[in-house]
Amino acid sequence: MTLEEKLGQLTQTPAGADQTGPTVDAEGRQQVRDGKLGSFLNLYGAEVTRRMQREAVEGSRLHIPLLFGFDVIHGMRTIFPIPLAIAATFDSSAAARMARTAAVEATAMGVHWTFAPMVDIARDARWGRIVEGAGEDPFLGSVMAAAQVRGFQSVNLGDPTSLLATAKHFAAYGGAEAGREYNTVSVSERDLWSVYLPPFRAAVRAGVGSLMASFNEVNGTPSHGNDWLLTDVLRTQWRFPGMVVSDWTGIPEMIAHGLGDSVTVAARALRAGVDMEMSSTLYRDKLAAEVRAGRLPVSLVDNAVRRVLLVKAQLGLFDDPYRGTSAERERRDILTTEHRAAAREVARESIVLLTNKTVGGAPALPLRRDLRSIAVIGRLAADSNSVLGAWHAIGRKEDAITVLDGLRRGLENTRVTYAAGVPIDTVVVTGPVNTPAIAEAEQAARSADAVILVLGELEQMSGEAASRTSIELPGAQLQLAQAVVRAARASSSTKPVIAVLVNGRPLAVQWLADSTSALVESWQLGVEHGNAVADILIGNSAPSGKLPVSFPRVTGQVPIYYNHKNTGRPPSDAVKWNSKYIDVAWTPLFPFGHGLSYTTFSYANLRVSHPTMRGTDSLTVTVDVSNTGTRPGAEIVQLYLRDDAASVTRPVRELSGFRRLALQPGQRQTVSFRLGPEDLAMYDRDMRRVVEPGGFTVWAGGSSVATLEAHFTVTGNVAVLAPAPPRFR
């Protein structure tokens, strides 16, 4: 290969688009023939990808196939729930099912490579991209990361339905200061290893084929030029054999970071370990001269090219550049009945019942079957675009079922009326609002037997470049809700008013929690959103989702997360001089792991198999879980752990296991968890991975505030599981 051809393999360029879809112009086609491109971004469709692949394998000197990448985040055409919602299932099989379905559809359209899963831990709900990850917990995030990698890539990358996965954004991107997109991240070495890196490690262990560098810096060095992160940690310690891709213009953005000119940052990125440059062309334009001048070893270029070519070989592109794509396969495998059924099932599991009060002697939900009329209020109830989420690949709003549609389908014998209510503006309205739209909604509420308020965010209000300073209900939706509740209660004190949230992040909804009959978190559930919500509200299915992220009472509490550390003055309502607020409770509105069902569950007899153990041993924790209600239901049994005293400060508790358990009324089952050295381990003062002797507490229950506890003690000497990782430099 010539030097220019090598650098071409390290270059990915975005495709264009016209009224027919993705396209490549004459200049792009010539670059392919000249060997100046290794990959296209945003190029999909059997016809156009086959045409461009033919240009590469028949029209270029080396006949090297192209790699086609596209953001397939939670579905290609069959859009599943947003990743944050899928995390609410606490079900790794649901995450894998989404990814497998997405891979089948994407590969049918010629796509080889997705830039998912996003595995960034996020504790600040102002950050728009919290929608794209698994929330605030490293354990849950690691489980979901590995499951999606397995779903996208299947067991063999050479399978024509396997999609190369990308764990992103490496690393700590979710820690953006002030929750502002693309902002600086200030993270300690200990928090990096304990909080932000575990999901990436899990993805690597699951065999992820690529990683994407993050926009932020780590310890003063932008990730795109951070050789400690990309080489010392990723390749040397973790032995990652795959490919690292830049984020969009991430390499030239190091100029704005202040690291030098375009030549300097391009060379620095390659030295650090970024193999392929996305959308910008500094590698191709600047590095040949550096190599020829002897300022950059050609071996660095060769290593990167080798990794890119290896990925193409693993995908089977040298054996079949087209991977069996065809117009017929595209028609057959897209938006099938089976795919929609899978999306509906995962969507149902994602819904979280936050509150469910007694109205007229019975729980507000599920809705009574004898209701003659229901008023559905709120623009999001009829918004088929917002339910798809901000990043929905080629999903179409025409494919999506809204809440209004779902209820009308599910309640054929009930009159369902609709009032749009107020517009949903970005700015939160704080003053009084009195408009004809609110008057119409009030009349609808007075006239119906029950009210469904659908409130939340438009799709563009979360996602990339969609940070918010306030996570209260945007626009005048709170005023709409207040007016509707007043009107409904004035007409009947026993009329249920159900609030359903459609959103991509936690919202501060204290008033709704206090004032409505029931509060349902439906997230943005994809094409089957309305059917899934109707299934839950009507009672065809029972809710089982749990919150993967804490919900604050007000925006001013963020960042808020359950696995925080204690201060020297832990919060206490009985004492003034400690860590709390004077105007609002310090606790979340809804804690991590919270979620109700249409039945009730009890926990009893939490026990450990041994009261003592050595740091290299394991023990079993068991708990009895009973369905104490009158309906069948599924519970997410959660196990939490605390190291009671250690050489460094530890979180107040950490999720260490969970099980999804289906129980009939009156049924009891014993659930067991195995805790081994890795579950008890921490990074000590020297950053060794160790299990220290001392006491441990375990809790089991239905959320992170579970109170049923047991204890055990680790005896003997400190067990060193791993030496200190590469230290910051």
What can be said about the biggest beta sheet?
Answer: 6 strands, mixed
Task: Quickly name the level 1 CATH class of the largest domain.
Answer: Alpha Beta
Q: End-to-end span in angstroms?
A: 35 Å
CATH topology of the largest domain: TIM Barrel
How many H/I helices? 21
Counting helices, strands and paired strands, the structural category is alpha/beta
Helix share bin: 25-40%
CATH architecture of the largest domain: Alpha-Beta Barrel
* Count of separate structural domains: 4
Strands of the widest sheet, in order across it, are 13-20-19-18-16-17
Explain what this protein looks like in three dimensions.
The chain is α/β, with parallel strands linked by helices. The chain has 4 domains: 1-69, no CATH class; 70-78 and 96-126 and 136-330, Glycoside hydrolase, family 3, N-terminal domain (TIM Barrel), CATH 3.20.20.300; 332-557, Rossmann fold; 601-722, Immunoglobulin-like (Sandwich), CATH 2.60.40.10. It has 21 helices and 31 strands. The protein has a 6-stranded mixed sheet, sandwiched between helices. Helix 16 crosses helix 20 (529-538).
